[in-house]
């Protein structure tokens, strides 16, 4: 979130160079304020992550730290075996992102290009599935995974999220593919391309920017998921980063400094991932247009 | 539709693969763990008294049971709360775990048949001799899952109770005497108000406000009243003398400035942090703060006293050791519980600011920790533990928070608040 906020002021600045419109200054100021507001919680988390518990007790949550206290970060890392959690999260989010994109493309090909019968209803159904709260899904999924013997495995979470994410992906991609330039498809068919070839040689390359955006989003969304991993990943060895963060909230006490340290460790990977794929994301937004 | 078919085929393939995978895993698990491994879960932080003491218990267990490994996993409180029924109903249940006491938690699981009835083990190993009557209440449940029953479904090895924490430096600076009677208590609060200091810390958004109210009601109550309220032994009237006194006095204290009006949205964590920062003269809260105050407060002297002139106060056993019905190593689980009940672990609890159920006072090193245990001894001796106000019915905690917030805001008179509590209580009673 902070990355988009930091990014957006660039646009108006370019414009001001061209024509010095007072209103664009206003926009710039407004965006800077907005960025500051959005970055503030992050700053507080960083502050508290670097404080000793005693400092936190004496000076409160908002005061800047007196020095760099990295013990909280280190303690948390060791306490929950964070490296392992990181690996679990990467495995789960990565597989989900790839699987869900593949599923979405296949579904959307049928719905958007193939224009099968009743596609509207299928889309409505998928949209409804998207609005279902996860709390409603948890029990049925729990029984299912227990029956299949995959309760408390990373695989169960991968399957569940690949399906959930692809519901959204199908919905989005179907409308993108619905507007796919027909002449391209017809030309391919004239050249004797089969359905598979049309999909892999024409559609996937042309929509690649959109697919990359979906990939990044699926990865980040899955990374941040809490409830289903909490319920399905019972063993500490299988847990993800977001579940591991919950360990610090006791019944009546919470360790504010260590929680901040853990939150910092928890968001850093997504932030890094986001920054790496930032260009993909901005490019993906213009993917609808014909080249 | 052929693409959807593909998707389904993919899923089916994945599931089949996973079945093979988990089948291996499962096979491994059962053959490897029988008698060789004790799977233990709890959710206490590693630096808390319980965390320290139980870690020692694990070492002791491993040295007295050569060849057996303890596979300990630290869990989050929320994870256990949300998933315990599901975990215990699967083959992945641990052999022994910490679980919350109370009707809605341990009681519910015992009713569902997910916990082992430990009654014979408790009497055989003499654990019942170590625990006072009001500590036992939360470990025993009846067929309906109501506490105070006849069967032991859990064993507590520590306890908790509420006390008034006070900032000695603030008392000295403002020439206020530490109260021993209720009259002196209110006089002390008046003195602070006169100096412009709010005497009592409070977190209106969480459990603290209702605990003040309940404590005030308890000063006019007896054991039968508590049993009626907590264990449904008699019909509860929220307009009786005790509840009315509790609610009106609480509202009165806000009016007098003993409790700050702006504490209405404060979280318990922040109220505790305010006490740690030295701004609050007194905080009425539980022994769960003790260890943290001891380690985090360096800038001033603090001490505690029990709520003056009351026969009953809030408190109960700590969380319970429970043995899931699906435990594969019940014998080892009992052995582990037994170690935590022994003097060695109990003394470690005591020395780390915990409230043990059976410690040796003589070996407790710091005078503060000693006082913590002596006070608990007093409470158990007079059968004074009256549990917590949110226990009896599901969802009562949130009702209580909302109603006490009304009292703090002054948006509803005590009479109406008690009426609303009555409604929530009556509709939530188990049939």
Automatic annotation (TrEMBL), chain A:
Presence of the UniProt keyword Nucleotidyltransferase in the record: no
Instruction: Give the primary localization class.
Output: membrane
Q: Which Gene3D superfamilies match?
A: MetI-like (1.10.3720.10)
ABC transmembrane type-1 domain sequence ranges: 86-277
**Cellular localization per UniProt:** Cell membrane
Q: Which UniProt keywords apply?
A: Cell membrane, Membrane, Transmembrane, Transmembrane helix, Transport
- Which spans are transmembrane here? 27-50, 86-108, 120-143, 155-177, 258-277
The record, for InterPro entries, names: MetI-like (IPR000515), MetI-like_sf (IPR035906)
Topology in the membrane? Answer: Multi-pass membrane protein
Q: Which domain of life is it from?
A: Bacteria
Q: Does the keyword Transport apply?
A: yes
SUPFAM superfamilies reported in the protein's UniProt record: MetI-like
Q: Which protein family is it in? A: Belongs to the binding-protein-dependent transport system permease family.
Stated name of the protein: Carbohydrate ABC transporter permease
Traced from the root, the source organism's taxonomic lineage reads:
Bacteria, Bacillati, Actinomycetota, Actinomycetes, Streptosporangiales
From TrEMBL, chain B:
**Tagged with keyword Transcription:** no
- Cross-referenced Pfam families: SBP_bac_1 (PF01547)
Kindly give the Gene3D superfamilies that the UniProt entry links to this protein.
Periplasmic binding protein-like II
Instruction: Report which residue ranges the record marks as coiled coil.
Output: none
Against InterPro entries, the record matches this protein to: Bact_solute-bd_prot1, SBP
Domain of life per record: Bacteria
The stretch of residues making up the signal peptide is 1-23
Its keywords, alphabetically, are:
Signal
Q: Which PANTHER family match?
A: ARABINOSE-BINDING PROTEIN-RELATED, BLR3389 PROTEIN
What is the designated name of this protein?
Extracellular solute-binding protein
